[in-house]
Design goal:
The complex is a heterodimer. Chain A is about 0% helix and about 45% strand. Chain A is mostly beta strands. In chain A, strand 5 and strand 6 form a beta hairpin. Chain B is built from no helices and eleven strands. In chain B, the strands form two sheets. In chain B, strands 2, 4, 5, 6, 9, 10 and 11 form a seven-stranded mixed beta sheet that branches. Classes of the chains: A mainly beta, B mainly beta. The interface between A and B is medium-sized, with 26 and 21 residues.
Chain lengths: ~110, ~120
């Protein structure tokens, strides 16, 4: 069982916006603004999309944005495109004893 | 170019051992934390082991006492020694750099497949 909870699947039509939630506890997401998000296409390694909650690495589209409220972090993809269809994982710092934890992953389907 | 290349994945019988390697280029493995993440077929990502620059290690409960992470500074390489392998250890194993101050994971290697089966 993953330490962070994500919905198993979300879907949206091209051009729409979707949000993927990542719920943790006061020991991880709630205590640190150190959530990152990863996109994984079939047969490929994960790719960093968001770090430190809301920062985008160079080369990542500004259609991807991150936020946090309490113990829940969120990834929002606006202007949904077919190429966004993939699995998405959140990851959070969880203190000096555990270090980092993943969410269970969310499958995004573009209808 | 910053890059990680894993090797060592193979088919091994239950109870056997395997050593995975991860060669880094474009940065030094001692500059931050290095970790192994695995993904069983059709499943999500799971942290296996992490080794930080101060020597501190973190391991998943499921591999504690069976797997160990180490690094060879002279070869800029990180290793994962896996002993007493079980069928449930079957997975793609990814090597990745973990930034200690931000907990972001980047870059990732392409992965190496470990299959534990008789």
């Amino acid at each position: 069982q993953s330490a962070l909870t994500q919905p198993a699947s979300v879907s949206g039509s091209p051009g729409q916006s979707i949000t993927i939630s990542c719920t943790g506890t006061s020991s991880d997401v709630g205590s640190y603004n150190l959530v990152s998000w990863y996109q994984q296409n079939p047969g490929k390694a994960p790719k960093l999309m968001i770090y430190e909650g809301s920062k985008r690495p160079s080369g990542v589209s500004n259609r991807f944005s991150g936020s946090k409220s309490g113990n829940t972090a969120s990834l929002t993809i606006s202007g949904l495109q077919a190429e966004d269809e993939a699995d998405y994982y959140c990851c959070s710092y969880a203190g000096s004893n555990t270090f980092v934890v993943f969410g269970g992953g969310t499958k995004l389907t573009v209808l | 170019e910053v890059q990680l290349v894993e090797s060592g994945g193979d088919l091994v019988q239950p109870g056997g051992s395997l050593r995975l390697s991860c060669a880094a280029s474009g940065f030094t493995v001692t500059s931050n934390c290095m970790g192994w993440v695995r993904q069983a077929p059709g499943m999500g990502l799971q942290w296996v082991s992490v080794l930080c620059s101060d020597g501190k290690t973190y391991s998943a409960d499921s591999v504690e006492g069976r797997f160990s992470i180490s690094r060879d500074d002279s070869k800029n390489t990180v290793h994962l020694q896996m002993n007493s392998l079980r069928t449930e250890d079957t997975a793609m194993y990814y090597c990745a750099r973990v930034w200690a101050n931000t907990a972001m994971v980047n870059p990732w290697g392409q992965g190496t497949l470990v299959t534990v089966s008789s």
